[in-house]
Design brief:
Main location: membrane
Number of domains: 1
Protein name: Quaternary ammonium compound-resistance protein SugE
Order of helices and strands: HHHH
Helix content: over 70%
Oligomer: single chain
Number of helices: 4
Largest sheet: none
Radius of gyration: 14 Å
Family: Belongs to the drug/metabolite transporter (DMT) superfamily. Small multidrug resistance (SMR) (TC 2.A.7.1) family.
Distance between the termini: 15 Å
GO molecular function: transmembrane transporter activity
Membrane topology: Multi-pass membrane protein
Length: 104
Amino acid sequence: MSWTNLVIAGFFEVFWAATMKMSNGFSKLGFSILTILGMVLSFFFLSQATKHLNLSIAYPVWTGIGAVGSIIIGVIIFKDQLSIATWFFVLLLLIGIIGIKFTS
């Protein structure tokens, strides 16, 4: 269940990052509220995950999910353009996240 909570926390990390972008500097109330809700839920699920997972494992996985997920959302929804070199390093992040999971 701890890993499930951690993945959910990572999902909400991506969610709030995307809604923060959509809030246009917190000038759009609906997206601003969703951003804050996403932050609260992300931290809540991270706190639940760290009850049984070491912080040294949970935190980097949480931020990694947020980073990779935000990159993917940026490319798909916001039409961000990334170079091949950047995609290579995104792949390294993903490999690192998976490696931490399998070695913990």
